[in-house]
Amino acid sequence: MLTIDLFVASNSPRRHELLAQIGVRFATVSVEVDETPEEDETPRALVRRLALAKARAGLAQRPDGHHEPVLGADTLVICDGRIIGKPQDLAHALDIWQHLSGRRHQVMTAVAMFGKGREEVLVQQSEVRFRVLSRAEMLAYWASGEPRDKAGAYAIQGLGAVFVEHLAGSYSGVMGLPLYETSELLGRFGITVIG
Question: Which residue segments constitute the domains of the chain, with CATH numbers given?
Answer without folding.
Answer: 6-188 (3.90.950.10)
